[in-house]
Amino acid sequence: MLGAFQNSGRITIEKDAGDRAGLKMTGGEIIVQGSVGDETGAQMKDGFVFVRGHAGKATGASMQGGTIVIQGNTGNEVGRGMIGGKIIVSGSCPPPGEGAEVRSIESSEIDQLSEHLEPLGFYIDSDALVIVPNEEGPPLAELPEYSISEGFERITLVPSARERLSLHSKIDNGMPIYPAGQDENQLTAPLPWIIETETLQNKSGRHLDIQPGLVKTQPRANDLLLISEDNLLEAAGLIGNCSGMVLDLREMPAINDAEIEAILVSLYSRMSDDSLVFLKDSVSRVEHLFRLVVDLDLDGALVDVASVGGSLAPAALPRIGLVSQAMNIPKQGRRILLELDETPSAEDLIIAISAGCTGVVAPPPSDDVESGLIWLDGTIKGWMLELGISELNQLTRRNLRALDHDTAAISGLRLIGYDRPLPMWLKN
């Protein structure tokens, strides 16, 4: 991933580079004196890549703009799926991939390339080949949408065996998030809700000032920074100003474990030692998400309940719980946050915590955020008095009941009135 996402400047490497050099670059230059691996310049939008040696397969795959020059040979599937830009090969070049075609280089193109290459002591032969998009273009994939078709409306809360607390009881409805394996340097959330929005810098209030957010830009000291492909370069300059980061794997290219670790290392090397590091992905990939969190020794995971085709939020609870238990996530001190796509109610927050999550990440209301926080604070405390608990960590799945048979079947919760799970869950 040499120079991946680069948008300006020049990178020069005197020997060989690995796979995905110049991945998704949008500007600048990359000069490789040796050879490169597969997918060089894949999905690039602009910029210039020069390789003195050979290149692997799928060079310039899905590229949209920019120029790639290979003086040596290339592997198969050159330019596969490209819709813009050009790839120039001086050496041996197999037939291009789907969506691309090959032609001879033109004298005007040689003159243009000379401006880049002559100062470096290189040149392009007149018999070089040029790979460009063909007129038909490649078939474009239409990715499915992620959504939540049903929330926690069909789950209710019950006191279990606890007595109701008196109105003057001391209630703690805060959500401390500790770095894994530590019992200090926590991120403190007065409510178990991290507000997901572009930024909270332009909003203020007694409750809002101390409630953490998950933001994309302008983080406050108590915010987490959400990092995706869109703000990855900007994040490098912001990451030291907040409490931690969440790397969104859904909004990154399809990268392997080693590449994920490389991105994380480059980012958290700019953070303080007690900063939080989370990974985010869909509930449909929760096994892979939790495995990465454990293998990379991160602080926790943000699980997006939305999935392709529309998910039922109650169905996410047993899947998250079973995988978490199998990987021993809670006992390792790692945290699980649940992402919803609408402003949460007090019941949503309590249900998520009862199911074993630390809290909820969700967008704020469209009107007065401060008033919403005040209302949630009072409503959560009222529920805690009724449930007979003084701290949120006293909540368990025993406080949850399914209101109908279908919800009990997909969630594994006890059906209201029966007070026991359905038979298919009792067998497990």
Architecture overview:
It is a single chain. This protein is an alpha/beta fold. The protein folds into two domains: 124 residues, Glutamate synthase, alpha subunit, C-terminal domain (Pectate Lyase C-like), CATH 2.160.20.60; 280 residues, Aldolase class I (TIM Barrel), CATH 3.20.20. It is built from nine helices and 23 strands. The strands form five sheets. Strands 12-13-14-15-16-17-20-21 form an eight-stranded parallel β-barrel. A seven-stranded mixed sheet has the order 1-2-3-4-5-7-6, with no helix packed on it. Helix 6 crosses helix 7. The mean pLDDT is 91.
Short structural summary:
With 428 residues, the chain is of the alpha/beta class. The protein folds into two domains: 10-133, Pectate Lyase C-like (3 Solenoid); 147-426, Aldolase class I (TIM Barrel, Alpha-Beta Barrel), CATH 3.20.20.
The strand line-up of the biggest sheet is 12-13-14-15-16-17-20-21
Q: What's the CATH class of the largest domain, please?
A: Alpha Beta
> How many domains?
2
CATH superfamily of the largest domain: Aldolase class I
| Approximate shape | elongated
Average pLDDT over all residues: 91
Q: What summary fits the major beta sheet? A: 8 strands, parallel, barrel
CATH fold-level assignment of the largest domain: TIM Barrel
**Number of beta-strand segments:** 23
Rg computed from alpha carbons, rounded to a whole number of angstroms: 26 Å
State the share of residues found in helices, binned by percent. 10-25%
Low-confidence stretches: none
Second rung of CATH, namely the architecture of the largest domain: Alpha-Beta Barrel
Number of helices: 9
How far is the N terminus from the C terminus? 44 Å
Structural class: alpha/beta
Strand content: 15-25%
